[in-house]
Specification:
Helix 7 links the parallel strand 5 and strand 6. The chain has a 6-stranded parallel beta sheet with strand order 1-11-8-7-5-6, with helices on both faces. It has a 3-stranded parallel beta sheet with strand order 3-2-4, sandwiched between helices. Strands 9-10 form a two-stranded antiparallel ribbon. It is globular. Helix 1 runs parallel beside helix 10, helix 2 packs across helix 10 and helix 6 packs across helix 7. It folds into 2 domains: about 80 residues, Leucine Dehydrogenase, chain A, domain 1 (Rossmann fold, 3-Layer(aba) Sandwich); about 130 residues, NAD(P)-binding Rossmann-like Domain (Rossmann fold, 3-Layer(aba) Sandwich), CATH 3.40.50. The relative contact order is 0.16. The protein is of the alpha/beta class and about 290 residues long.
Length: about 290
């Protein structure tokens, strides 16, 4: 069993970006800037944007977090989006999800300039990704594909089962791995909470991507020997730690890992690759 070390791979990619940024800034170019708008005080969102802020510092980006109260109006949030669209010093920005129930998530996403949509959620970027055209690919799916590529995991002709159909992870990663590309050329089965015979489907899979947000959902008896398992889950569960919680994946690692050829840990697997993919998208936006 080989551990797919996202922390290590992300560190190597960050070092490459940092070198390129340093050279450009030394030549007199302005520093790239990534902005995050954070509504409310959701713990998981706070953790994510703080990791993003640290990663920006690591590569030499400017980073700004704009904090808004949970009761901010949709109109005020849209005004902020328009201001960021118009700010030439901002190369890319994200509006951290989830948003409070009184705000229409899709309306906010559609208001973002696709050229600054480094989350890759705007319909224009989703459409281009679906067609295999150059675009901003959402960070977690992009990170998964980059991790598979780094470890040279064979995907062509393989059966990939994706558990979870969100527009953030499940659907885009299923699309990416089905495309005529490398990594890619998979036969993909997209599963969800209403899928019948899920265990039987998983046992047929060469690659399983668990992105359902249910701690320990994928058990050892659901995985064939030699399978590749990617665990996207990052659910906070109570624990006797300084923070009072720990991150739990969607995979029962102790049961599943002995059966795998490759597997990602939680934390340290997909999470760091998500952050570095966001940096890559920002660098791409900066370069135009």
């Amino acid at each position: 069993m080989i551990l797919l070390d996202g922390k290590k791979v992300a560190g190597e990619i960050k070092a490459e970006i940092a070198g390129e940024v340093a050279r450009l800034v030394a030549s007199g170019r302005r520093t790239p800037q990534l902005v995050a708008a954070l509504v409310g005080n959701d713990g998981a969102s706070e953790t994510y944007v703080s990791h993003k802020e640290k990663a920006c510092r690591d590569v030499g980006f400017q980073s700004q977090i704009i904090r808004l109260p949970a009761d901010v109006s949709e109109a005020d949030l849209l005004t902020l989006v328009m201001e960021l669209n118009a700010d030439d010093t901002v190369d890319g920005f994200i509006v951290q999800l989830p948003l409070p129930a009184h705000i229409d998530e899709h309306r906010i996403i559609e208001a973002i300039d696709p050229k600054k949509d480094v989350d890759g959620f705007h319909p224009v970027n989703v459409g281009r990704m679906t067609l295999g055209l150059p675009t901003f690919v959402s960070a977690t799916p992009a990170g998964i594909v980059d991790l598979l590529a780094h470890y040279r995991v064979e995907t062509s002709g393989k059966h990939c089962v994706v558990i979870g159909r969100s527009h953030i992870v499940g659907r885009p990663v299923a699309n990416l791995l089905s495309q005529k590309a490398r990594p890619g050329n998979c036969t993909v089965t997209l599963c969800h909470s209403h899928t019948q015979n899920l265990k039987a489907l998983c046992l047929q899979a060469d690659i399983i991507i668990a992105a359902i947000g249910s701690p320990g959902f994928l058990k050892g008896d659901m995985v064939r020997r030699g399978a590749v398992v990617i665990d996207v889950g990052t659910t906070r569960v109570p624990a006797n730690t300084k923070s009072g919680f720990r991150l739990a994946g969607d995979v029962r690692f102790d049961e599943v890992a002995p059966r795998c050829s490759y597997i990602t840990p939680v934390p340290g697997g997909v999470g760091p690759m998500t952050i570095v993919s966001l940096l890559r998208n920002t660098w791409k936006a900066y370069r135009g």
